[in-house]
Amino acid sequence: MNRYKEIFFHWLFVVLGFSALAFLLAITLLIFKEALPIFKHTPFWAFISGQFWYPTYEPPDFGILPLILASFLVTLGAVVVAAPLGIGTALYLTELAGRRQRAFLKPLLEILAGVPSVVYGFFGMVVLAPFFQKAFQLPTGLCALTASLTLGIMSIPFICSLVEDALSVVPRMFREASLALGANHWQTLTRVVIPAAGSGISTAVILGISRSIGETMTVLMVAGGAAVIPKSFLQPVRPMTATIAAEMAEAPFGSAHYHALFGIAAVLFVLTLIFNVLAEAVCQRFRQKLGSKL
Amino acid sequence: MENKPSVRLQTIQVSFFYGEKKVLHNISLDIYQNSVTAIIGPSGCGKSTFIRLLNRMNDLIPGSRLQGTIMLDGQDIYQPQVNVVELRRKVGMVFQKPNPFPKSIFENVAYGPVVKGTRDRLLLQNIVEQSLRKSALWEEVKDRLYENALTLSGGQQQRLCIARCLAVEPEVILFDEPCASLDPIATQRIEELITELKKEYTIVIVTHNMQQAARVSDYTAFFWLGELVEFGRTEKIFTVPENKRTEEYLAGKFG
C-alpha cells in the first residue's frame, strides 16, 4: 500500500513539475502560430523595420519600428532611473543601515514591490504627467519621460532585492580580509564587495530591463500612445505591450491586424528571452569566478 | 638564557560579551616581542574571539562589548582616538580559511599597499616580490602573477594570504587557526614559515592542534570556557603544567 502511495506522489509531482513547461510550450506555440500569417501579408523584415503603424487604414500599414523604439526608449529611461536607485538602496541596506533602519526600510520596499502596476499608472497620470507638462510646456504630459520615470520607480524594489541577494552571497571573509589589511569601509565596499558581486548586480539590471520591456499597464496609461518614431523623451510614444493591450479588443478575430498583434507579441517574446538568457549567462560566469573552492 | 624579551601586546583583565553572554573572563596575558605565542584550548573556548580582539576585528559584531584594556606598546587600542585602520596595519591577521580575493595574485598582495595609497607601479612590484619571497611562494607563482588567485591550491592560497598580510608591513601577525583547512604537507610549510617570520615579527597563533603549538611556539596560553587557565613557556606548559585542567587537556582527556 505504502509503495503505491509513494509511486503515486512521485508521479503527481513529476506532472506538476512539468506543467509549467507545458504551459510555456503552449503559449509559445500559440503566439508563433497566430503570428505567422502576418508575415505572409507583410514580410518579417518590413514588419520590424516599417516606420508606419496604421493597422486600420485601407490598405493597412504594419510597421512596428516605432513601437519597438518606444519600448526601448521607455525601458532605457526606466533603467537609468531604477538602476542607480535600486543599487544604491541595496548598498545602503546591506552595508550601511543599522538594524533599526533596515527593519523600517525593508518592509517599505516590499510594499512598494506589491503595489499593483495600475496604481503606479495612476500616480504617473495624476502627479508626474501634469508636472512635466507644466515644467516643459508640453501639449501633453503623457510621454516617454513620464513612462520611464513611473516604470523606473516601479522597478526599484525589484532591482534592489536582486542586488541585495548578490551582495549577501559575497563571503564575509572577503570583507574581513580587506578590513584586516587596513582598508576602510568604503575601500572594502568599492574594491572588494562590489567587484565580487559585479555579475550579480549586472544580472539584476538585465532582469530589470527584461521586466520593464514586458510591463504593460503603466505604459498603456502614461506613455501617451502615439505610434510614431520617437525623437525625444518628451513625445508621446506607444510601446509594444501597450499596443497589444489597447488594440486586441478591437482587432477582428483572424484579421491581418489580429495577426500583426501576435507578431508584436512574438517579437517581444524573443526580446525578453534574449535578456533572460543573457542574465543567466552573466550569472553563470559569476558563480565560476567565485569558484567552487569557496 | 632567561633574558626577558619586551612585552609587545598586553591584555589586562579583558572580558568580552556577545549581548548578555560573557564569552571571555578577565584575561590578562602578555605577548612578547619576536616570539610565537600559541593559544590552545577546546573548540568554543574563546580562542578565536580573543585573538580577534587584538586587531579589533570584533568591532563589526553588533551587540558585542569589551571590558578591560588591551595595550599595544603601552597604548590602549580601544581608546576612541585610536585609528582602527592604522592599528590593523600594525597588527595583521591571517584567517582560518584561506581567503584570497577573486583577483589576480599580484592584486591580492598589492591590495594593502594600494589601499594605503601606494600607486608607484615599480614600488608595488617590489613589495609584491619581497612579500611573496618571505612567504616562500615566489618561486611557485613568479610566472603567473596575473592569474586569478583562486587557481592556487589551498596551501598556496594560505601562503598568499600571509604574503598579502606581510605586504602591509605589520609588526604583529595574528594567525587564527591558519592550518585548519590544510593537508599535513601544506601545514608543515606554514609552520616552517611561522618559525622563520618570528625573527622579524611578533606572532600570535590560535590552534586546536596541540602538536602544532608545541612545535612552533615559545609561549603557550591554555584557554578553557573563556578563561585563561595557564600561560607560560611552551616547554614548561607541555612538560610540567601547573594546572590539573591543562594537564588533562594535553593528555587528551577532554577537548
Q: Quick summary of this structure?
A:
The complex is a heterodimer of chains A (294) and B (255). Chain A has 294 residues and is mostly helical. Helix content of chain A is 77%, strand content 1%.
Which terms would index this structure?
heterodimer, A: 294 residues, mainly alpha, MetI-like fold, 2 domains, two-stranded antiparallel sheet, 11 helices, B: 255 residues, alpha/beta, six-stranded mixed sheet, four-stranded antiparallel sheet, 10 strands, globular
Largest interface (CB < 8 Å): A-B, 23 and 28 residues
Strand order of the largest sheet of chain A: 1-2
Quaternary status: heterodimer
Mean pLDDT of chain A equals 91
Give start-end ranges of low-pLDDT stretches of chain A. Answer: none
Based on secondary structure, the structural category of chain B is alpha/beta
**What would CATH call the class of the largest domain in chain A?**
Mainly Alpha
Question: The biggest beta sheet of chain A, please?
Answer: 2 strands, antiparallel
* Total helical segments of chain B: 10
Order of helices and strands of chain B: EEEHEEHEHHHHEHEHEEHH
Written as H for each helix and E for each strand, in order along the chain, the element string of chain A is HHEEHHHHHHHHH
Strand content of chain A: under 5%
Number of domains of chain A: 2
Number of helix segments of chain A? 11
Main-sheet strand order of chain B equals: 6-7-8-3-9-10
Mean of residue pLDDT values of chain B? 92
Q: State the end-to-end distance of chain B.
A: 34 Å
What is the CATH H-level superfamily of the largest domain in chain A? MetI-like
Report the principal-axis shape of chain A.
globular
Compute the CA-based radius of gyration of chain B: 18 Å
The total count of strands of chain B amounts to 10
